[in-house]
Every structure is written in C-alpha cells, then in structure tokens.
Specification:
elongated, single chain, 2 domains
Amino acid sequence: MSDKQYEGSFFNYFITIYDPRQDEKVKHKLIDVLFIVVVATISNCNEWQEIEIWAREREEWLRKYLELPNGIPSQYTYERVCDVIDPKQFAKCFTEWMKDVTEMSKGTIVAIDGKTACGTGDNKKGKKPIHIVNAWCSSNKMVLGQVKTDEKSNEITAVPELLDMLFIKGCIVTVDAMNTQKKTVEKIVKEKKADYVVALKGNHETLYNEVVDYFKDAESDGFKDEKIQSYRTLEKGHGRIEERLYYYSTDIKWMDARKDWVKMMGIGMVIRKVQIDDKQTEERQFHFGSVDVVKDYADAVRIHWGIESTHWSLDVTFREDASRTRTGKAPENLALLRRLALNVVKKDKERFAKRSLKAKRFTASLSTDYLDYLMSINF
C-alpha cells in the first residue's frame, strides 16, 4: 500500500457507506468505485462509459490513492453501485464532509433553493423528473447538502428535512417565497440558532399587501422616513448596468403578523434596475427577516440570487439536464456526485483561479499533477 492510499477526509467520511451488494459477487471495493466516479466527474466525464475509459487511462495514478485489487471496474459496476447505495446515507456523509471543510462564520449566507434535473423524467412512462433542493454557502460558494423531492411543490416539506442535516449556527438562511413557511422559520431560529431573510409574495396575501403598501407610501414620500434604512449597489460590465436599491425597516410594531413569525425584526424591499444598451427594466421584490440592519438584508437578497449560478454550472458545465439516467436511486446519487465534484473544482482559488469551471475540469482531464493538487486541497 502506498503512503497516500485511503488517506484524507474523503475516505474518512465515505468509507462508512453501507454496501448492499452480495459479498460473493463483489470484485471491487465500494470506496474505490465511489472515488473513481467522483474524480472522473471532476475530470470532465459525464457518462458511465466515459468514466470507465478515463479510469483505465489513469489506472497508474489511481493506484496512488486506491488498492484496486481486481483492476478497474467496468461501466456497469459504476452504474450498479450508484443504483444501490442509499441516497440518504450518501447525502449525510456528504453534508458531514462539507461541515468539516467549510468555514461557516457568523453572518454567512446559506441560500436554499431547488433545481429540477429535467433529463431524469420520462413522459412515456409518466415519470416526473427529480427535483433537488440544495443548500449553498456564500463563504466558499459550495453546496452544503441536498434533499430530493418528486416535484417542485414538495419543496415545502424538503426544506425542513435539509435544515436538519446542516450545522448553520449564526448564519443567515434565505429561501424563496414558496418556502416562506412558519414552521421553516421557527426551525431556523429555534433549532438551528440562525437568522433568516425570506421572500414574500401573494401566498401570504395579507402580510404581502401590508409590506407592499408600506413601501409604496414610503416611496411616494421619497423615503424621507429616517426609520427606513437604505443601501445601494451598482454593477457594470459587458454593456450591462445593474443598480439595486435596498430599503429595510424595523419599525414594525404596528404589524399583527410579526406575532406569527418567530423573531421577525424587519421588512424589506429591493428595487432592481437593469439597463442593457437602450433597454431598461425595473422590478420590486419584498422580504422580511430576523436581521436588523439593511446591509445584512441586502447581502442576503443579493447572495440568494447567486445560487442560480450554481444551478447554471450544473447544467452547462456538468450537463445535468442532459443526463438520461432515470431509474432507481442513481439519479439522486448522481446529482450529489455532481455537486461534490463542483465543490472540489471550485475550491481551487490559487492554481488556476481565473479559469472557468469548465476549463478546470478540462485541465483535470489532461493533467494528473492538477488532479493531485485538487486532492491535496480537498481530500
């Protein structure tokens, strides 16, 4: 055994995953198969056959980290393993690992949002695509955990389940309007010891109308009320100018609704103005939260939008929507593997900091030296 074999945090956490395969039929260690799939995914592989081809070309390098007593597994072994391991245990190991490698300081934004893996559905068989709810951390732009639902409407029950997996004390949690639920807010504050900024739309009609009317009056008065805090950001680039004006008020004693929401401290509005060439658009969004300063509110709202870039990367860089793995447990486990690989590549802030995620994956497919570097900073 080499000095590096089975050393590092990845092996410490994932070696505990239960292997349901029949012992007499097992040729390859579960941890070997998982490691190969993860590193192959990092190295620009998106299909089972690609993973096998990559592993055979990189067998000598893989043996620095793995024993591989029976050589390189076939593509069917990777597929079978991803179809039989328990997604909940896999996700728990992933979340525990992320807790170990992620810096979570007070005020860190944790954005929770869902993404549908479109390719996992099958209209002919009446199978809906899986929907994954992700928790994403602002401090290192990594995914902290995931929970699968069968459709988007089930996010309401999935978000509390995801929160149960996370260690987020002192953080600020953000969710979209659909997940602005009293039980979710209560769990964030009482159980997770965190704060929140949540979006507000018509699904809470009375509260929404009160907040809209409050800021409509304030805007007509030119926001002269000193009790309303304000903050402004301006971003320019590639012919696009985006201005965001944030307004936040903790003067909400007049609101009956604050009694219904744990630790409700203030209400907010953001006006988002985007100009591209001669065309300008403007929209308003409304929120409430347990924070008491406008800067925290502004950071939470702005960073929540950032999770969309992670979803975009999963589609464009990892071709998630193009995946046609649809049956059994494999779609959910593959979704987690992509997020794991995404985190590993994102952690490179020095070697090729200016390269895109796509370019980093391509580099990993060509260079074992770069793979060793990624192992050293992640595994």
